[in-house]
Amino acid sequence: VFTVTAGSLRLFQLLPDGRRQIVGFAFAGDFLGLTSGGLYNLSAETLEDSRVCQVPRAEFAKLVQEIPALEHRLLDRTSLELAKAREQMVLLGRKTAGERLATFLLQMQTRLAAAPPGDGSLRLPMTRADIADYLGLTTETVSRTFSRLRALKLIEIGDNDAIRLLRPQQLQALAGGSYPGTGAAAKPGPGL
Amino acid sequence: VFTVTAGSLRLFQLLPDGRRQIVGFAFAGDFLGLTSGGLYNLSAETLEDSRVCQVPRAEFAKLVQEIPALEHRLLDRTSLELAKAREQMVLLGRKTAGERLATFLLQMQTRLAAAPPGDGSLRLPMTRADIADYLGLTTETVSRTFSRLRALKLIEIGDNDAIRLLRPQQLQALAGGSYPGTGAAAKPGPGL
DNA sequence: CGATTTTTTGATTGCTGTCAATTTGGGTGG
DNA sequence: CCACCCAAATTGACAGCAATCAAAAAATCG
């Protein structure tokens, strides 16, 4: 069980033949390690010099028993992670390359709002290959799509990896926010 | 907050232009409704005649307060859902149509192991369109892939929607189980 | 049994992947 | 400080899988 205190990690799974899917990135303050039965392990690698706080699982379990509020918070966080995972499923299942990258940039803007180079730009700690494996694309497509967004004047790419979002509202439109359908419960189905 | 007591539902999100991503199916015994802040709503529709048990959110919250063990169970379930969502991200981001369908059939075999028509076959309650929107494909591709698997003698399709998995081990190989990478924590990154 | 929806099959397009080459950037050692 | 080296990123040409467009066949329903 870990907490990230500085830096950033990529969380991913591999297929037997080496294909990789990055299921998320972890930044300072993020929590890792709930495995629900030990199966379903994730792998994690640092993206840059990082620092994590490690807690033995047994000790953590004791801590949870002593402080019920902790479990409450944990459930809250996990539910949020689940919701984000589902958003990502929408992205991976239904969005085009341009929409994926726009969504990603807005995500990163939200996540990295505090830290980056002061001015409105983002410094992405991950490589194009990481972004590709996160968005279900290839490095080449990611690169091409960056170029296309730059040509459209939606973003600006600085000398380092600094990226500036020029027209957030247009990016937002391109990203295609997902919708809460018509109703919360059973509607058009056969019968209930 | 709901619990499914009979039947089955599809859980999905929509994009503004109508594209749909089904993020999961719910069967008898499944739990719905943790929203972590109200944002991120899912939509749900029945796939067949179904029955759910509805509990007002306020009442549920009280119940949770009274029974701490309930929250523990809830966290466990949610963690499991998160793990499954991540598996699905691997499918959506990195698997081919054939691999997706094979994975799906094995999933359904696990889920529907108890109920279906006694003999080893599955009765899928969802349409080809639902399957397509769950696997990030189109109806046509799903149909074609079913035909291909049938031609390969990996499955058999009965009169109704009954499907029999002929060679589970080959399907398993095709599905490409995902891997727990090399290490659990930071490895090849720059430094820690 | 006719009407409608769902599924299957076919023809073609196109987005993204693959293969390949070039350019850029960062790090190292002279 | 600069030349060199290597990894990462970009760009180009081409191929392929799945999407799209279209139509036929099958199943469901009233």
Structure report:
- The structure is a homodimer of 192-residue chains.
- Chain A has 192 residues and is of the alpha+beta class.
- Helix content of chain A is 42%, strand content 21%.
- Chain A has helices at 57-66, 68-94, 97-111, 128-135, 139-151, 168-175, and strands at residues 2-6, 8-14, 20-27, 31-32, 43-46, 51-54, 121-123, 155-157, 162-165.
- In chain A, the strands form three sheets. Chain A has a three-stranded antiparallel beta sheet with strand order 4-1-6, with no helix packed on it. A three-stranded antiparallel beta sheet of chain A has the order 3-2-5.
- In chain A, α1 packs across α2 and α4 (128-135) packs across α5.
- Chains A and B meet through β2, β3, β5, β6 and α2 of A and β2, β3, β5, β6 and α2 of B.
- The structure holds a DNA duplex (30 and 30 nucleotides).
